[in-house]
Amino acid sequence: MAAGSKRKASSENNNGESENGTKKKTIQTTKTEEEEEEEENDEGETKETFCNNPIGFQFKVLHTDGRARYTNLTLPHYDCFTPMFMPVGTQGCVKGLTSMQLEEIECQVILGNTYHLGQRPGKDLFLECGGLHKFMSWKRGLLTDSGGFQMVSLADLSDVTEEGVTFQSPIDGKSEMLTPEKSMEIQNAIGADIIMALDDVVSSVKISKERFEEATHRTTRWIDRCIKGHKRPKEQALFGIVQGGLDDRLRDISLKGLLKRGKDLPGFAIGGLAGGEGKEDFCRVLESALPKLPFNKPRYVMGIGYPIDIVICTAFGGDMYDCVFPSRTARFGNALVPEGTLRLKQAQYKTDERKVQDDCDCVCCLNYTRKDLNKIAGKETEASIVLTYHNLRYLMRLCKQMREAIEKKTFKAFCVEFTKKLYSLEKGVPKWVVDAFAKVDIDVST
Ligand SMILES: [Zn+2]
């Protein structure tokens, strides 16, 4: 990293305390600030760190196998185990599924979208009814994003300045500004167990280097405004988000900025990926960034929903994932199975009497054949519902299988087996997958 950028990062972060700064200062008072920064980055292994956690929030790494972790994340509303996948409920519910069905498939946490929830039903209604948990009769964990993701997905409708992001509402065309303070205010009203800092997120593939540099430093400045604006730190855990696009130097600057504020951040996320960048870049950034996050805090990789990505990220040391993909692809008539994706609208399924997945215990697999689904896939709501149910059940089971493999120290063999099956109907395992696993000493090439 260039000395100039390091100084820039440290001068911007001078309000923050190092996560284990207090401890270091008592034992080695002669270290310079730069030496301390270097040391802090060492594997990110922060031990016995003090953190202002919400009441009832706890995190414990139960087992490790290589870099993969099986952890227990206790949230105010639910006791979770990771690796875990969190389905996305855009308007306060996962499309097509009831809260009871989500419990049936062993879903632990649902992700709510702050921007959409803030627009409809709106902050005041949440304050009135006592938060999103009550609003959607969901007793388990909830996580809300900051609204920042909409900067990418509604990019042509948004304008980012130091103060915040100005949106043109897609509903009524009115201009509205989302600031770090406003994001906290809405997320405090929604009342999720985990809330996310507002970051200046830019698409990993489209924007110039200068824009990434600006966004990285702005995200660090905004985290202080988020910490200050967060009014329920005893009830909701604020996670910081590492940004920096595909640039290792910017990722490191972003990470250091967050680590210095570690006592106010019970968890960390990696953002700005899974936006269409090459798979090699995606794996390079995550393999490098994940082990630098503190060992004793949850690590959330945002926007990840392809089964192969979930397994690779877990091998790199990730804990939590979310994506609209499994439910969206279900609405197009596609089912996730160990051998890949069944595109049930295709003619080959017209006479296929088999279940979607032989060893699946879900409502879809117990009651429908591929032939039944071929008739209604992509057309009838019924197909969207049962396929969403199956796809989410598949991912919950995949995460559980990974936890069991990590506990038994057979995670490597699990990855080999999983990969072999996933690409069994294709020409072989893609090079990027072989290379990704090779980074953590897992050979899936044969
Ligand atoms: Zn099923």
TrEMBL record:
| Enzyme class name | transferase
Keywords for this protein: Cytoplasm, Glycosyltransferase, Metal-binding, Transferase, tRNA processing, Zinc
The UniProt catalytic activity note for this protein reads: guanosine(34) in tRNA + queuine = queuosine(34) in tRNA + guanine
Which residues bind Zn(2+) per the record? 360, 362, 365, 390
Cofactor (UniProt): Zn(2+)
Q: What GO cellular component entries does it have? A: cytosol
Residues where substrate binds: 145-149, 199, 243, 272
Keyword Transferase annotated = yes
Q: List the active site.
A: 145, 322
**Chain positions covered by the region annotation RNA binding:** 303-309
Q: Which domain of life is it from?
A: Eukaryota
Give the region (Disordered) as residue ranges. Answer: 1-50
Q: What is its main location?
A: cytoplasm
Write out the GO biological process terms: tRNA modification
Write out the GO MF terms: metal ion binding; tRNA-guanosine(34) queuine transglycosylase activity
Q: Which InterPro entries match?
A: TGT, TGT-like_sf, tRNA_ribo_trans-like
EC number(s) in its UniProt entry?
A: 2.4.2.64
**Subunit architecture:** Heterodimer of a catalytic subunit and an accessory subunit.
What HAMAP family does this protein's entry cite? Q_tRNA_Tgt
Similarity-based family: Belongs to the queuine tRNA-ribosyltransferase family.
UniProt function note:
Catalytic subunit of the queuine tRNA-ribosyltransferase (TGT) that catalyzes the base-exchange of a guanine (G) residue with queuine (Q) at position 34 (anticodon wobble position) in tRNAs with GU(N) anticodons (tRNA-Asp, -Asn, -His and -Tyr), resulting in the hypermodified nucleoside queuosine (7-(((4,5-cis-dihydroxy-2-cyclopenten-1-yl)amino)methyl)-7-deazaguanosine). Catalysis occurs through a double-displacement mechanism. The nucleophile active site attacks the C1' of nucleotide 34 to detach the guanine base from the RNA, forming a covalent enzyme-RNA intermediate.
What is this protein's record name?
Queuine tRNA-ribosyltransferase catalytic subunit 1
Which species does this protein come from? Bathycoccus prasinos
